[in-house]
Every structure is written in structure tokens, then in C-alpha cells.
Design a protein that fits this description.
149 residues; mainly alpha; two-stranded antiparallel sheet; 8% strand; elongated
Length: 149
């Protein structure tokens, strides 16, 4: 029997990790840690506790796989500029990435209006998770296709 078949047949709900928890429990713990790390960044930043990872993220454990889908849609935190330029910008991603006005208008250089320092909710949350994660889980961020219009 090949090693792949042996590993595929393992029941992760019964095999214990060095911590004493099963590997399935460890993955659930890792999912909760990831959620908490991203949420702590959201709470600290300009979104201030007004957005919860419970509202925007699906964190799932499936076997030995941990997946996190950030589902921040335009309807949750739409840009106020949408009514003027019909752009599908999303405030969460604009703040995460450090919003800047591209055109030479009068408010281009006004902090928190024409530009913002990048909050990096997602990236810093993942970085904190990686510093605390003992399982070697790799996180990949998949962004919505259109969040800047």
C-alpha cells in the first residue's frame, strides 16, 4: 500500500498531535486563531469594531485543509463615491491597501480623505497568525475580482 493511500485513510478526528489535541481540533484552533488575528487588526484600525470577521469570512476546516474566504462585498461597506462615479470600490479593501486619489483634485493630499495610510488588516492578521501557528499552515488570500471599480 502506498504512503498516499495510508495518509488519505487516516482519521484526523482520532490521531493526536503533540499538544494532546487531535489534528482536526488543531485545525479548528488554527481557524479560530486566524479569525482572531484578522479581527484584532480590524478593531485597531479605522474600521473600529464596525466590521466582524464573522460577517465577512468563511473559515472552514476540511480534513487537513484550512480555507479562509474573505467575502467582503461592495454592499457591506460601499464607497460613498459610488453615487458620483458608479465605481464598485469597497471601503474595506480601499483602507486595507491605502486609498489614494489618482486625479490632481483639491483634496488629493488631505489625509484620510485624499489618501490614507494602508491599514493592512488582512496581511498583518496573517503575519500575526503565522508567528503563532505551529502547524505550518499556508494562507492564500483571494480577493474579489472588482473592488476598485
Amino acid at each position: 500500500m502506498s504512503l498516499d493511500k495510508i495518509v488519505a485513510g487516516l482519521d484526523l478526528t482520532k490521531i493526536k498531535a503533540p499538544s494532546g489535541l487531535t489534528y482536526a481540533q488543531e485545525l479548528v484552533r488554527a481557524a479560530n486563531l486566524l479569525r482572531d488575528c484578522i479581527q484584532s487588526r480590524i478593531n485597531r484600525g479605522s474600521m473600529g469594531s464596525c466590521l466582524s470577521t464573522a460577517d465577512i469570512a468563511d473559515i472552514k476546516v476540511d480534513g487537513m485543509r484550512l480555507s479562509c474566504t474573505l467575502k467582503v462585498q461592495n454592499a457591506i461597506r460601499p464607497s460613498i463615491f459610488n453615487k458620483w462615479n458608479q465605481s464598485n470600490a469597497n471601503v474595506f479593501w480601499l483602507l486595507n491597501d491605502g486609498y489614494t486619489v489618482k486625479k490632481p483634485v483639491w483634496f488629493k493630499n488631505i489625509p484620510n480623505f485624499g489618501y490614507r495610510v494602508a491599514e493592512r488588516f488582512v496581511e498583518e492578521g496573517i503575519q500575526e497568525f503565522n508567528s503563532k501557528n505551529d502547524l505550518g499552515i499556508e494562507i492564500t488570500v483571494i480577493r474579489p475580482l472588482m473592488y476598485y471599480g
